Amino acid sequence: MTPRPRASRLTVVTAVLLALAVAVLLAMLARDFLVPALVAERRSPAPAETSSSTPVTTTASPTPGGPSASSSPASPSSSPTPSGSATAAPAEGPAAAQLRAAIVQALAGAPGTAHVSVRDAATGRPLVDVAADTPVPPASALKVLTAAAVLETLGPERTLVTRTVVLPGVDGSGAEVVLVGGGDSLLGVGASDPSAVSGRAGLGTLAAQTVEHLAAAGVEGPVRVSVDTRLLPGTGRNPAWPEDLYTAGYIAPVHALATYGARPVRGIADDRVEDPAAFAAAAFRSALADRAEAAGLTVADGPVLTTAAPRLVVGATASAAEVESAPVAEQVQFLLAHSDNQVAETLARVAAVESGREAGPAGVADLLGATAETLGADREDLVAADASGLAPADRMSAAALTQVLAAAAEQPRTAGLAASLPAPGTDSTLRERLVGTPAQGRVRAKTGTLMGTVSLTGTVRPASGGELVFSVVLDGIDGEVAAARRSADQVAAALAGL
After folding, report:
1. How confident is the model at residue 191 (pLDDT cuts 50, 70, 90)?
2. Exposure pattern of 186-206 as b/e (b: 16+ CB <10 Å)?
3. For the segment 55-94, what is each residue's pLDDT rounded down to a tens digit?
C-alpha cells in the first residue's frame, strides 16, 4: 500500500479539530440562549384568542319589529372568525377559545344579529367580544344599570317613607290630612305586610295611625284629605314612550305614590291603573274614613286634591304617621326578578332627585350616564331615554352591560347586584327558562324582551371553575321572540357546561 502524504494527514487533523470547535460553540449557545428561552416559553401562559368585533349574523335581512327598532341591519349568514390581539386566558375555568366556540355553536340559527360580551368576573378582563361595542336596544337589560345607579345613590338599606301631616282646616275648623308621597311605588292598600316587598308599607296601617293622632290631638270637625306628590313633580309621563305602552299596561305615569307597582291589587300583571297617585290617595281616604267613624270623626267625601299648602310648610311639619317601604336592596331585587318597569322608573327618579338632578327623564338619563362612567363603561354611546328599557331610543352595548355588572361587584353599595339577578326556576322571569339545563344553579341573569330585541345579561359559574360575566343581545329579531330566547338560553347553558 502506498503511504499517504504528510500534508494530507495534516488536513484531516485540522478538519477534525475545527468540527470539535464548532460543536463546543453550539453547545455553549444552546446552554446560554436556547434552553432559557424554551423554559420561559413553557412558563408563560398560552395566549387566548379574542373574538372578532364582527357581528354574528344568523338570518338574512331581518326587519325589526315591536317598540324597538334594530340598530344593526343583518347581512348574509356567516360565522365570525377570531381576530385581533390575543389576551391571557382566565386563571380558572374554560379558555377564551373554548368560550367563543361554544357561543358560536349555541347561536347557530338564531334570529337577528348577535352581540356578545364575556368577561372574567374576577378581573373584568374581556374574554369574548362579538360586536360587543355596538350600541343596541338593550331591552330590560338596561335595568342592570338602573339597579346599580339606584343602589349607589340611595344605598341598599335605605327605605322610602310615606307619611301624613295634619294642618289646620281651611275654614279654621276640622283638619287637613296631607298624604305625602316619598317615592314608594309598592304601597299596599291594607295593613303593612312585613313579609312582603310589594305591600310592605300599607295605607291601611297609615290610616289607622293617623286616626290615632287625630284623636290624641283632640281634632273636632270634618277632616279633609289632600295629597302631596311634589317629590316627583309633573305628569309622570315620558315623551320617549309610545302611547300604546300606557294602554297595554307596561307602564303608568310615574309619581311619588303608587300601590303595588301602579296596580290595583298585589301582583305582577300588566293591569296598571291610569293615575297611580290618585288611586293610592283614594285608597287612603277610604281607609281613613272607615277608621275615623269609630273615633267620632268625619272624613269629607269627594276626590282627593293636591294640597294648597306650600311644600316648605308640609316638609317642616312633623309627621302624624309614617310607614316605611322595604329596603332599596329588596325593591331592586323585586324589580330585577319581575322586570317591573314601574318600580324601576320610580326608583330611578327618586335617585335622580337624591343626587341633585331633576326628577324627569333628563335627570334619570344623566344619572345613568354618570353611573356607567363611574363603573368604567363607555358613556358616549349610551342612550338612556328611560330607566326600564321600554323606550325605542334606548341604546347600550353588550360590553357596557358586562362592564357595569363586573365593576359593580367591587363597590360596597352595589356589591350585591349580581346576587339580586333572577335564577332559573325561581319566582322571576326565569321561572320556566333554563330549568333542567347546566345553567340551573350556575346562572343568574336579567332577561330583556322587546319585539325587536331579546337580551340576557348576568353571571355564570362554568363547571370547570371560575366565574364569568356575560351579555347576549339579539337585535333585529323581527318578532321572533321565542327563537331568540332559546338562542340566548343556549348560550348561557353552554357557558355553564364548560
Report:
1. very high
2. bbbbebbbeebbbbbbbbbbb
3. 444 433 333 333 433 333 333 333 333 333 334 455 567 8
Instruction: Give the cell for residue 294.
Output: 269609630
How far apart (Å, rounded) are the C-alpha atoms in residues 98 and 451?
Answer: 31
Contacts of 294 (CB under 8 A, 6+ apart): 211
What is the rounded CA–CA span in Å between residue 417 and residue 95? Answer: 26
> How many Cα atoms are found within 13 Å in the side-chain-facing hemisphere of 265?
2
Do residues 372 and 404 make contact, with C-beta atoms less than 8 angstroms apart? Answer: yes
| Dihedral (CA of 275, 278, 282, 284) sign | positive
CB burial class (10 A; 0-12, 13-18, 19+) of residue 53? middle
Alpha-carbon torsion 429, 256, 329, 367, what sign? positive
Q: Give me the DSSP letters along 111-167.
A: SSEEEEEEEETTT--EEEEESTTS-B--GGGHHHHHHHHHHHHH-TT---EEEEEEE
Per the prediction, the chain carries an average pLDDT of 86
Residue recorded with cell 305591600: 199
pLDDT over 90 for what percent of the chain? 76
- The whole-angstrom separation of Cα 228 and Cα 207 is 16
Report the C-alpha gap between 240 and 271 in whole angstroms: 21
Asked if 190 and 181 count as a contact pair (C-beta separation under 8 A), the reply is no
Q: Report the C-alpha gap between 133 and 112 in whole angstroms.
A: 17
pLDDT digits (tens, 9 = 90+) for 413-451: 999 999 999 999 999 999 999 999 999 999 999 999 999
CA distance 51 to 117: 10
For residue range 133-163, list pLDDT tens digits in order: 999 999 999 999 999 999 999 999 999 999 9
In the structure grid, which three cell numbers stand for residue 251, read together?
307602564
User: Among 294-298, 330-334, 453-457, 475-479, which is the least confidently predicted range?
Assistant: 294-298
Q: Which pLDDT band, with edges at 50, 70 and 90, does 54 fall under?
A: very low
| Residues counted in the chain | 498
Q: Is 228 helix (H, G, I), strand (E, B) or coil?
A: strand
- Does the pLDDT of residue 276 top 60, yes or no? yes
Helix axes 276-292, 203-216, angle to 10 degrees: 50
Is 90 exceeded by the pLDDT of residue 102? yes
CB 25 within 8 A of CB 44: no
Provide the 10 A C-beta neighbour count for residue 86: 13
The angle subtended at Cα 197 by Cα 192 and Cα 203, nearest 5°, is: 30
